[in-house]
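Quick one, tokens below:
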């Protein structure tokens, strides 16, 4: 098994991340515990920036905060000079509370509420990525009421079907997202945007899906968007200043995954951009990676509890978390690699299946994992859990959501406190009429 980022097996035979022993982390902060390799996150951000600098194109990289959003993460993004993509009032609120510059924020989403739009307007965010005609009209009305001009991008569905799970494809024609290129919706949206009194159309956006391992889909998306640009110039006299190609760059969850390096994605996109805009002024190219920045930087630590042998079939090993802190295996049949953190140097002796503790038969984290002889109290480290694990965590079975720590250069910093039992009740209320109910005799 290939470890990620700064992870290594130390002299005690334990998994170490960011110079910190994972067994010590489990003792200090408890389990389940999300551990984020800060150095790796920063290196991934810089890899996108450096790859674009080599192309000579005008560019901008935004972090897609839906992958993992906390105050500390927003601060890290700001320090590295990236823009920020948000998709809800909660993500926007987090960014603003972290003092992230609002002019470097843009707002995504296929059903932004009036309250969310108003919140973005009042905060002075940089752009809204408009997803549909309802939003286009509503945003113009709100901006008119406020007496301001709003910069927008139009999200398009370019008809590119990425080779990934059905639930995380977003660029195909039959999609809930964006204005469709094939049926004339985009042209209507361009016309309406240009005629709107309070909307400034800056360009186009597309996103073909997530966990994509090749560059061909991105090449095809650039071709479609370049053709749209030529058409918009010919029909409306509009040349977009920004072309946002979204994210979706794949990462390694298991040994069979073969994502290409960041530089290859960017190089392929740049090559297609030059071909598509030959002899013309190229728009500024934006990307919005999320998973590819934080995914492999995350490790979840669990404590092993009970075991169950089914003779001749399998051995179940249960941990103190499950689909409440990682719903992806249940949602997408996602697969993960793991290592027994306190026995990381030992040779595998048995094959187990890792079960969660929730009351669902589908609460399985990993099937058929080869490990040393596992005992109750061991620490299991599941790799590549930095994206869409914390952000999708829930309180099913009234379990508390885990803590999050950043590790770097031998230091561990708590960035999200573990929920307390009282936190589970903070929004609960008992109606007054129930308070005076007489006990049943």
């Amino acid at each position: 098994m290939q470890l990620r980022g700064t992870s290594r097996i130390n002299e005690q035979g334990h998994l170490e991340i960011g110079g910190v022993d994972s067994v010590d982390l489990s003792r200090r902060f408890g389990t389940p515990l999300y551990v984020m390799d800060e150095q790796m996150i920063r290196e991934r951000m810089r890899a996108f920036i450096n790859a674009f600098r080599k192309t000579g194109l005008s560019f901008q990289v935004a972090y897609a905060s839906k992958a993992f959003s906390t105050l500390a993460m927003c601060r890290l993004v700001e320090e590295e000079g990236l823009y920020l993509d948000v998709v809800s009032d909660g993500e926007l609120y987090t960014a603003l509370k972290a003092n992230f510059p609002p002019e470097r924020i843009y707002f995504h989403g296929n059903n932004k509420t009036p309250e969310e739009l108003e919140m973005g307007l009042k905060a002075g965010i940089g752009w809204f990525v408009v997803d549909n005609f309802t939003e286009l009209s509503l945003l113009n009305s709100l901006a008119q009421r406020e007496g301001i001009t709003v910069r927008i991008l139009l999200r398009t569905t370019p008809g590119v079907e990425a080779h990934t799970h059905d639930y995380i494809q977003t660029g195909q024609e039959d999609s809930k997202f964006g204005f469709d290129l094939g049926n004339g919706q985009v042209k209507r949206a361009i016309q309406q945007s240009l005629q709107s009194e309070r909307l400034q159309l800056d360009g186009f956006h597309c996103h073909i899906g997530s966990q994509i391992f090749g560059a061909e889909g991105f090449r095809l998306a650039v071709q479609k968007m370049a053709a749209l640009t030529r058409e918009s110039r010919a029909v409306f006299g509009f040349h977009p200043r920004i072309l946002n190609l979204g994210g979706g760059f794949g990462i390694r969850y298991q040994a069979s995954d073969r994502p290409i390096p960041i530089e290859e994605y960017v190089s392929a996109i740049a090559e297609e951009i030059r071909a598509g805009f030959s002899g013309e002024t190229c728009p500024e190219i934006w990307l919005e990676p999320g998973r590819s920045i934080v995914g492999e930087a995350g490790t979840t630590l669990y404590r092993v509890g009970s075991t169950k042998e089914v003779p001749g079939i399998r051995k179940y090993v249960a941990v103190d978390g499950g689909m409440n802190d990682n719903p992806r295996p249940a949602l997408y049949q996602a697969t993960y690699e793991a290592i027994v953190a306190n026995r990381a140097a030992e040779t595998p002796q048995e094959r187990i299946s890792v079960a969660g503790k929730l009351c669902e038969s589908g609460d399985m984290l990993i099937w058929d994992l080869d490990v040393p002889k596992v005992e109750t109290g061991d620490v299991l480290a599941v790799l590549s859990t930095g994206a869409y694990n914390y952000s999708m965590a829930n309180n099913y079975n009234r379990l508390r959501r885990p803590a999050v720590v950043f590790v770097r250069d031998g230091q561990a910093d708590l960035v999200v406190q573990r929920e307390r039992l009282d936190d589970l009740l903070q929004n609960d209320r008992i109606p007054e009429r129930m308070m005076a109910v007489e006990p049943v005799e």
